[in-house]
Amino acid sequence: MKVIRDEDKKSNKYIMRFEVEKGTIQKNTRKNASAIEITTEDYNNLVVYMADGSKPRYKNVPENKVRLLELRYQQFLNNKTKLNSLKDSKTIFNVVFGGIAGIIVGVTAMATSSITILLHCSVITFALAYTSATIVNKVINSKINDIKKYALFFENEDIFKNVDLDDSNTLERVKSKDKAVIAEIKQEKDKENEKPYLDNNSIDGLSLDALRKIKANIESNIERENYLGLVSTDEETKCNTESKGKPYVKK
Q1: Cα–Cα distance between 36 and 3 in angstroms, integer?
Q2: CA angle in degrees (0–180, nearest 5) for 156-233-171
Q3: Is 53 left (phi over 0), alpha (psi -120 to 50) or beta?
Q4: Mean pLDDT for the chain?
Q5: Which residues of 20-58 are buried (b: 16+ CB within 10 A; e: fewer)?
Q6: Where residue 5 falls among pLDDT bands split at 50, 70, 90?
Q7: What 8-state DSSP symbol labels residue 41?
Q8: Strand partners, 84
Q9: Element (H, E) at 23
Q10: Residue 130 pLDDT
Q11: Helices within 81-156 (DSSP H only)
């Protein structure tokens, strides 16, 4: 979850993301007469990445995960209040940039002396202004899309929580980069024997476009299945067992 508000920058309370950390550490080493005895201890922690760069660790228990997801939801609500101001900032910046670009072009067109020098300076100025505009727009768009992504998730939480990632239709038209992230999510969740796959922490690395396409695919799949009324492959065995020995009767 990106930092949107100025007051959350460098905050030791703002949760960027969290993940499970497991392993074994060496605790003690003791020398005996015939051998060296090494004592180890397994650890299973939740590592929480904060906006200030700190990474506190907590016990990996369900109640801690639930609490972190609740806190991230509150963060989203705070971030959402900045959506309109981000859109306004983008509009104002683009208007200002457009005005500067127009002035540069106009001055260059009307110049009657030292045209080569003036043109050269104008091109450099325009290039710098364009580069700055591109960077600023990219930053603003990134924050806007992040807010929209979490808004889409929370508005359709039931759909995403019940998503079937083993169904290839669910990921139709999803970009390869997002599919790779989804594969990692599934792998990590399966290790923990944990569901749902998609929650407000696991979607952190996914794009807004990916969530939109997954939602559209799920809704399209439901609509298609309701229309076709066909038996799916996972029901085939059951149907074959029930119908075994029963002759087909033409109606």
Answers
A1: 50
A2: 35
A3: left
A4: 83
A5: eeeeeeeeeeeeeeeeeeeeeeeeebbebbbbeeeeeee
A6: very high
A7: E
A8: none
A9: strand 15-31
A10: 61
A11: 83-110, 115-155
